[in-house]
Design a protein that fits this description.
The structure is a single chain. The protein contains no helices and 7 strands. The chain is mainly beta and 69 residues long. It starts with a strand and ends with a strand.
Length: 69
């Protein structure tokens, strides 16, 4: 399982996860959701609850969202 660590004050950013490649994310504070887009290869995206510990899957890779201040 991979950990995706996001600072809750940064509403948009990119990051690299070794098993997936580059990701972009955008936080929507009004709906308490985060949209995550996989940018490498065939693009894929998902929208999940913006809460610490939420588990989700992209390209058969399990990820856990870690929200920091």
């Amino acid at each position: 399982m991979e950990i995706m660590t996001i600072n809750k004050r940064q509403t948009r950013d990119t990051m690299t996860i070794p098993t997936l490649g580059m990701l972009a994310y955008r936080i929507f504070p009004d709906t308490e959701c985060i949209n995550i887009q996989l940018l490498s290869g065939a693009q894929e995206e998902c929208t999940i609850s913006f809460k610490d510990g939420v588990m989700f899957k992209l390209r058969d890779v399990n990820l856990c969202l870690e929200v920091i201040d």
